[in-house]
Amino acid sequence: MLPRFSCWFSAGRRLQRSDDYGKNGKVYRETDEARADLHTVVTDIIEGQYDNPSRVVAFNTSEGWSRDVTEDVARAILERSRRAAEPLEGIARAFVE
């Protein structure tokens, strides 16, 4: 089972995403702790701030865990799109597919 969103707000959190460049491989990038909250990550993906995100992993160094939260982020993107009654485009659409 995937973690609830509370994991995004605990001390010592980090977020890493991978951008997929096909045959050239993936790049793993850490997100600044101040921008490692669900709202900001969802906004950045919808606005196309990432090249080609394929995975999102949350880390909590204080508690000693990491979790793949890709599905949580995808659900949040879909929910925001539904509430706004706006279709997803570009990178955000590809991410949730």
Order of helices and strands: EEHEEHH
The tally of helices reads 3
Question: How does the overall form come out from the CA principal axes?
Answer: globular
What is the helical fraction, as a range of percent?
Answer: 25-40%
- Walk across the major sheet and give the strand order: 2-1-3-4
Q: Gyration radius, to the nearest Å? A: 13 Å
Describe the sheet with the most strands: 4 strands, antiparallel
Describe it for me?
There is one protein chain. The chain has one domain. The chain is globular and about 40 Å long. The chain is an alpha+beta fold. Helix 1 packs across helix 2. The chain has helices spanning 38-46, 70-84, 90-96, and strands spanning 13-20, 26-31, 53-60, 65-68.
Comma- or semicolon-separated keywords:
disordered N terminus; 4 strands; alpha+beta; 97 residues
What's the quick description here?
The chain is α+β, with helices and mostly antiparallel strands.
Layout of helices and strands, plus pairs?
Elements (H helix, E strand, L loop, with lengths): L12 E8 L5 E6 L6 H9 L6 E8 L4 E4 L1 H15 L5 H7 L1
Antiparallel strand pairs: 1-2, 1-3, 3-4
Helix pairs in contact: 1-2
